[in-house]
Amino acid sequence: MVASDSERAPTFSSGSASAGGKTRGFAATPVTGALLVINVVAYAIQLFAVGRVEGLWKIPSSTMLAFGANDAFSVIYDVRPETLVTSAFLHVSAMHLVTNMVVLWLTGPRLETQVGSARFAVLYLLAALAAGVASLASAFVVNGEDHLSAGASGAVCGLLGASLVVGLRMGGWHTQMARASAPLLLFVALLGVRANALQIDNAAHVAGACTGMIAGASWQRGVATNERRQVRTLVGCAALCAAALVANVTRVAIDPSLALDAAGRYERAVNALSARRCADAWHDLRAAERLAPRSAQVAQLRDAIVRHCRR
């Protein structure tokens, strides 16, 4: 007889999630529950900011940028590393949100129960960061052009990758974790075949899944972690997310041009020049040049500002 996940010992649990106690539901897997709530609340706030029902189908790029979506050129040239974190909690449509949250709901509780909440939280953030870095790298190296990315899918793929490896380590394909995660990973891979049509970020998915697989292979089984250390880990993860959120909100409030793409910044500079607000025109021009340094249109605007503002 092949033992089930809960019967096989030792497990990977670090002690913060109960694998066989009386605690059930999201009380036993608090990080999964918190992530579901945070992602849904974040999308609700995005919808409120849009103020139109069309936001259910697509959140405008300006709103996504203001909330901290991962714009490849902006991360580098505007120096916005905080968006590598904030973008993992944003979604571009209701379908985008529902898809990711369903997979998180199916995968998260089982993995968090086996490895513990602290490991689970660290993995989620590491997979999200790896996905964000891979996404912006693909913009420079593969596509050669800017693109906007957001969503929990990179982090969720990390959970799937870890679940597959942990399940295989616990008992091969007989374990429920392996059998459940493999089809979901295959589904993500099949969606990636039509990446352009569906606007899917394959680089983020692959990076997230690989991060999860590496984590799942490196975790030691049966190693208990004291409660104080787990609490410190969870507090650290929460602090990182909070710091990224505060940084994004503060920077956009100080410089609204950060919530605009190159075209939006160009238009803002033109409007400022038309109103003879030279300081604003120069500021927005420089912001546009950071995202489109080789644009002939932006170069012409610089010449116009030089002529009219004599600076």
Describe the structure.
The protein is mainly α and 311 residues long. The protein folds into two domains: 25-255, Rhomboid-like (Rhomboid-like fold); 260-309, no CATH class. The protein contains 14 helices and two strands. The chain has a two-stranded antiparallel sheet. Helix 7 packs antiparallel against helix 8 (176-193). The model is unreliable at 1-10 and 15-21 (pLDDT under 50).
In a few lines, what is going on in this structure?
With 311 residues, the protein is mostly helical.
Strand count, sense and barrel status of the largest sheet are:
2 strands, antiparallel
Distance between the termini: 81 Å
Count of helices?
Answer: 14
Q: Tell me the strand order in the biggest sheet.
A: 1-2
Work out the radius of gyration.
Answer: 22 Å
Count every beta strand, where a strand is a DSSP E run of 2 or more residues.
2
Oligomer status: single chain
Written as H for each helix and E for each strand, in order along the chain, the element string is: HHEHHHHEHHHHHHHH
Question: What's the name of the CATH homologous superfamily of the largest domain?
Answer: Rhomboid-like
CATH topology of the largest domain: Rhomboid-like fold
Strand residues, percent: under 5%
Task: Choose one word for the global shape.
Answer: elongated
What is the overall pLDDT average? Answer: 85
Low-confidence stretches: 1-10, 15-21
